[in-house]
Amino acid sequence: MKYLVALFTTLSIFAYSQTKKSTPAPQKLADAYNLKFKINGLKTGDTIFLANYYGDKQYLKDTAYVDSKGSFVFSGKETLPNGIYLVVMPGKQYFEVIVKEQNFAMETDTKDYTQNMKVTGSTENEAFYGYLKYVVVKGKRGEELKKQYEDALKNDTLKAKKLRDELIAVDKDVFEYRKNFVKQNPDKLVARIFKSMMDPEIPETPKLANGRPDSTFPYRYYKAHYWDNIDLNEDGLIRTPVFHGKLEKYIKQMVLQSPDSINKEADYLISKVKNEKSEIYKYFIWYVTNQYETSQIMGMDAVFVHMAEKYYLTGKAYWVNEDTEAKIRDRYNTLRYLLLNNYAPILVLQDTAAKEKSFTSIRAKFTVLFFWDPNCGHCQKETPKLARLYDSVKTKYSMEVYAINTQQDVPAWKNFIKTHKLNWINVYDGKGGSGFHKMYDIYSTPTMYILDENKKIVAKRLGVEQLADFMETYTKFKKEREKENK
Question: How many CA atoms lie within 13 A of 286 on its CB side?
């Protein structure tokens, strides 16, 4: 029996109230959905929840209460979207149902929800529970064989081999059962769900002209056919525990983690969805945008900029409200100027003698823009570390630091500079109004941007301990590129 670990946390965040009219209207309309359940073993008055999967989360959809016969009903005036739903009981126990038909009945027992399940009025759930019952039997047999196999490995290798073959046969039986089920029920949602779980079958690896196997073929074939078994016109797949994992695996494991590659694949996936009003279309756009706006990998904000520019700011993400669109536009207008290989936005600030200084006049192979605050605890630890690194490697790497005080506590700033002997270019916004916080997306300190000799951004938000390694690696890379281009 499955137990829900995080469902109720999710429900508390995303739940919306379901109000039942105590007095029916004079002309009562028929319910759009009417799901009847009877479960022996529940107590009168128990609260039961109906929830649905959506991506990698679950959302509360309806609430019902158990009567004296162990029965309860979920009903409502709006049709339930297709998908897998969870009937959640006290003790966080639950079982799953397929919702496509909107009127059906199911009866079971708390002793074994799956094996005792009886379905009326739903061919989808009849098929689903027929499959589950088969899998449970095979699963129990597999567990028995696995235990025997592990015992046999200790003293009887021949028997272990035989048991291993039997285990493989059990897995093959389940695979074939699912495969045949999909073929025999092409119009069923449950069959589309099972099909979406299947990986493409990779044919034999061909040989190259030199007679050796093409080692890249399995990957290329698998990637090219990854979506073959997934019906991108079936929004019901969004409401299963399968779809999000398939998308995440493709984006994170099958696609090179570089902005150009991700942008290309995102556009490809979105173009495969023919219905722009579909949930899958929305989910593709939302997932990629959200994933890379908050990515911890340097440079991935270029994906967010691409998605915002192509979909959100052109009206293609038609479902977002004006406030959300305004926030995305504002974020886009900040980040697009801070992408790797862009020229750093120019700053002209004042030094300790109130003289204007700009980093554009610095002649160095690396310029570090260091945003810090003398009253920030983390800055008080990191700034002296950077000062020591600066003194030891500034000549080796041709490095200069343009350090920006993010606050206006001038006495504390000057005292820290003197105490820690910060012998680089120290500046602050003495005149006010430079807008560097927004210009450089400074939401925490310390923050570093590393510029090359042309004042293009080559790295950002590194820690002090990463700076020397970056300059070493980047210098070697640049030398190798120069050799290649000669």
Answer: 15
* Digit-coded pLDDT (tens) for 72-129: 999 999 999 999 999 999 998 999 999 999 999 999 999 999 999 999 999 999 999 9
Q: Is the Cβ–Cβ distance between 74 and 64 less than 8 Å?
A: yes
Domain hosting residue 116, numbered range: 7-21+28-120
- Residue by residue, DSSP assigns 253-277 as IIS-SSHHHHHHHHHHHHHH---TT
Write out the E strands in 89-206. 94-99, 103-109, 118-120
- Give the pLDDT confidence of 354-380 residue by residue, as tens digits: 999 999 999 999 999 999 999 999 999
Q: Is residue 342 part of a domain?
A: no
**352 and 471 inside one domain:** yes
Report pTM.
0.84
Let me know: does 340 contact 298? Beta carbons within 8 Å.
Answer: yes
Contacts of 10 (CB under 8 A, 6+ apart): 57, 58, 59
Q: Tokens representing 418?
A: 């003197």
